[in-house]
């Protein structure tokens, strides 16, 4: 013969019953409030409303910018994970090489110009006679 205890003695039912009893005063308080009372809503001045709208627009713009940056980063990441064909890899290496050569040529041009400017003779104007300065 097995002795079983009644179902209302289980820990789960006791916890539920305790919860209902704990929340009963809150429910009674909510029901006790008068249904006719409304919160007072004051109109917002136009200048404050404009400022709020501007701040909300700024937040929306920043959120959109952030989302676009995330999409771009995801796109770059996805492309980086894609395996490259030999032709694509060769094209990328050629583009990198061309970029390095252009940068090297630009730097060399700057160096050559600087050297050429330093090698030029300095021209010091002589004072001209008064008749040449007056034009006659």
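Q: What amino acid sequence fits the structure above?
A:
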């Amino acid at each position: 013969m097995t002795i079983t205890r009644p179902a209302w003695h289980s820990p789960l039912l006791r916890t539920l019953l305790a919860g209902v009893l704990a929340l009963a005063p809150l429910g009674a308080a909510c029901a006790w409030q008068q249904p006719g009372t409304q919160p007072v809503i004051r109109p917002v001045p136009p200048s404050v409303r404009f400022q709020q709208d501007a701040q909300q627009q700024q937040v929306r713009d920043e959120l959109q910018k952030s989302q676009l940056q995330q999409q771009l980063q995801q796109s770059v990441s996805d492309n980086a994970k894609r395996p490259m064909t030999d032709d694509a890899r060769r094209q990328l290496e050629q583009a990198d090489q061309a970029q390095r050569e252009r940068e090297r040529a630009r730097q060399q041009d700057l160096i050559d110009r600087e050297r050429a400017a330093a090698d030029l003779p300095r021209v010091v104007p002589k004072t001209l006679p008064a008749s040449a300065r007056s034009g006659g």
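Q: And what stands out in the fold?
A: The helical segments are 11-32, 46-81, 86-119, 130-134.
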